[in-house]
């Protein structure tokens, strides 16, 4: 028999909506909290009768001191109006409790009329409870989706309102939202309202620039394009526009450092396909990395990277403030 495997958020959604497996014990964890909440909503929709939450839903809060005996009490309560009683256990106390024979007995006694969903803030795969749920229930690791997948979801959401958006514009929206579904959902609602009020049926980069957070990745690409060209005034104008919009200089420096690291990888790898397949970058972003890295030698990229590391160290040791360190780095890189 094959070992049990963690499934992803999409796999879990398909499992719930298809009804192919009658769930009784579930573990949901990962970095994409918004998607996890959608998974929980899907479980409620599958097993709870509309209007029955007050009687057939139990939620054990993150900071609750309820123990396994309290959990067992909920488990043994029959549903009143629904197909199953749904128990959402967010409690770090219960998940982090020592998992022995008594705790295993309680989870093994979940009746067919109940489903228990554990969703701890942090999951440890080597814990006994995690291994038990993986073996005896369904465990889903719900992490941030690839940018191209998120862009596809956003594009489909807009299409339902007959709003068109080009693929590169949609990827910019995802980048502006740091690939977070909650932020993307919020921005999409704002853009839909804008289109409805203005009669627009297509969104452009200009629309995103007016209404959405700045695209840090695009801005960092623009700043890096100025390196070695002597165009420090252009790079500083891009930086200034970000600072005017209240983007923290420390965050910009971290983004630039990450970008330089990725340029080194792109220079070493040399092709878009490998970045997409091995590093999971979306194709549009990977192609831009390869093209920009081609302007530099590997030694030049390492020099830029270590200069960025030194600038960060200067800030951490009180030798410079965030903004000055970033401006100095950009000027030196542009004229070198």
Short description:
This protein is α/β, with parallel strands linked by helices. Helices cover 60% and strands 8% of the residues. The chain is elongated, with a radius of gyration of 25 Å.
Indicate the topology.
Elements: H1 9-18, E1 25-29, H2 33-47, H3 53-56, E2 57-60, H4 68-75, E3 85-89, H5 92-96, H6 101-108, E4 114-118, H7 128-136, E5 138-141, H8 147-159, E6 164-165, H9 167-176, H10 181-198, E7 202-203, H11 205-211, H12 216-225, H13 232-244, H14 249-269, H15 272-279, H16 283-293, H17 298-316, H18 322-335
Parallel strand pairs: 1-4, 1-5, 2-3, 3-4, 6-7
Helix pairs in contact: 1-2, 8-9, 8-10, 12-13, 12-14, 13-18, 14-16, 14-17, 15-16, 17-18
What does this structure look like?
- By secondary structure, this protein is α/β, with parallel strands linked by helices.
- The protein has three domains: 9-141, P-loop containing nucleotide triphosphate hydrolases (Rossmann fold); 147-211, Helicase, Ruva Protein, domain 3 (Orthogonal Bundle); 216-335, Zinc Finger, Delta Prime, domain 3 (Up-down Bundle).
- The protein has 18 helices and seven strands.
- A five-stranded parallel sheet has the order 2-3-4-1-5, sandwiched between helices.
- The longest helix is centred in the last third of the chain and has 21 residues, at 249-269.
Amount of beta strand: 5-15%
End-to-end separation in angstroms reads 61 Å
Number of helices: 18
Reported by name, the CATH topology of the largest domain is Rossmann fold
- Tell me the helix content: 55-70%
| Pattern of helices and strands | HEHHEHEHHEHEHEHHEHHHHHHHH
What general outline do the C-alpha atoms trace?
A: elongated
Largest sheet: 5 strands, parallel
What oligomeric arrangement do these chains adopt? single chain
User: Class of the largest domain in CATH?
Assistant: Alpha Beta
Write the CATH architecture name of the largest domain. 3-Layer(aba) Sandwich
